Amino acid sequence: MTTFMETYRSQIIYGVSVITVVVALYLSTNILHKWILKKAQKKFSDAKPGAINLLKRVLNLLWLVLGIIALSLIFVEEDAYAALQNQFKLLLYLGFLTVLTIVSATSINLWFRRSIQNKIQCHDDPTAFKFLRYAVVYSIYFIGVLFGLMAFPALRSVAQTALGGAGVLALIAGISSQEALSNLVGGLFIIAFKPFKIGNVIEINSAMVGRVKDITLRHTVIRNFENKMIVIPNAIINKEKLVNYDLDELKCCEFIEIGISYDSDVDLAKNIMQQECEKHPLIYDNRTTLDKDNGKPMVRTALTKLSDSSLIIRAWAWARTYGDAFDLKCDVIESIKKGFDKAGIEIPYPYRTVVMKNDSVC
Question: Does 175 score more than 50 pLDDT?
Fold first, then answer.
């Protein structure tokens, strides 16, 4: 035993040192992970710790693999020693490149999140920051992958070409995927010309109405009034006619139309609709000073259409916002119906006249 210890003393000391270093690095990584996780949750309570957990797993795996390779150096022959050292250096480079990429992307992402929160607290528009966050983070991961490819001789020329001619590569990728390029360009147009921003209520069609929650490189996310998230490609938004209820002035005019029968009192119906709208708490007085001096009513009513079985009466009711206008319309339609019932004003059903012909000869 003594002879064995004296013969392999240096190898034993080297092996114990490697194991000690690996265990120390493993424990340090776990302690550092808990500390960073606690700090991140304190500053960003709603943030998901996915990147931090991934960084912990990458580091622990790196220490384990490097430790195994370092221990393997004890048992290999001299001709394989240099090759194993090269593998050790390659894994060390790829590991630290992965860590650096994740840390850089996470740090930039957190900086953008903090800036977005500050803008929201200051009531500024965070749309551009939200869009740029995705562009910068994806660019960091893309560059990290290219530097990783440069570690392999067979792929080095491809990575150098991509880094040296990123514009050409982007053009080729765009031509090969025109839909992806159109979505990206659509997102840039949205950020540049600002037809809407984060927090605006927009309507693309009757099925897609809601508040804008996010604008990414590919799509725009809105939350409708049923609390459902709708993901719309940016290219579609740029092609459609869009209604922004929060652009410039927030006040909104709601058309309230109800049909009455031909034998009902039109003036009485108009008066009931006007009174029900004007007494609602969400009504907004959009009259100018001159309109008030001339005695114009707050809510205008008029007979707008003679349909097949009814007379269509419209009331122009103003509200401060689109949301108020929607609530106003729902409440007023119900109260008008009750007022019509009390006044004996009929809201007609569609009428059909059936003519029976008897062709039989007596």
Answer: no
Place of tokens 């419209």: 314
What does the DSSP 8-state code read for residue 348? Answer: P
CATH class of residue range 186-244: mainly beta
With H, G, I as helix, E, B as strand and everything else as coil, classify residue 257. strand
Convert the pLDDT of each residue in 286-335 to its tens digit: 998 898 888 899 999 999 999 888 899 999 999 998 889 989 999 999 99
**Which one is predicted more confidently, 361 or 286?**
286
Cα 18 from Cα 75, distance rounded (Å): 14
Structure tokens at 173: 């990728």
CA distance 171 to 158: 16
Strand-strand pairing, 208-215 and 229-233: unpaired
Q: Tell me how many degrees the CA angle 310-313-318 measures, rounded to the nearest 5.
A: 150
Token duo for residue 308:
């097949």
Token pair in block for residue 32? 């550092």
Q: How many CB atoms lie within 10 A of CB 289?
A: 7
- Could you give the count of Cα atoms lying within 13 Å of 63 in the half-sphere of its Cβ? 18
Q: Which ranges of the chain would DSSP assign to H, the alpha helix?
A: 2-7, 9-43, 50-72, 78-121, 127-149, 153-164, 166-176, 178-193, 234-239, 266-278, 289-293, 322-343
CB-based contact 256:333 (threshold 8 Å): yes
Do 219 and 211 meet the contact criterion of CB atoms below 8 Å apart? no
Are 237 and 276 in contact, with CB atoms under 8 Å apart?
no
| 318, containing H or E segment | strand 311-319
pLDDT-based confidence at 278, cuts 50/70/90?
Answer: very high
Q: In whole angstroms, what is the distance from residue 216 CA to residue 133 CA?
A: 9
Residues 125-158: tens digit of each pLDDT: 777 777 788 788 888 888 888 888 787 776 666 6
Please state whether 105 falls in left (phi above 0), alpha (psi between -120 and 50) or beta: alpha
Given the candidates 3.90.70.10, 3.90.1170.40, 3.30.70.100, 1.10.3720.10, the CATH classification of the domain at 252-343 is 3.30.70.100
Q: Which helix (H) or strand (E) holds 317?
A: strand 311-319
Residues 6+ away with beta carbon under 8 Å from 250: 320, 321, 322
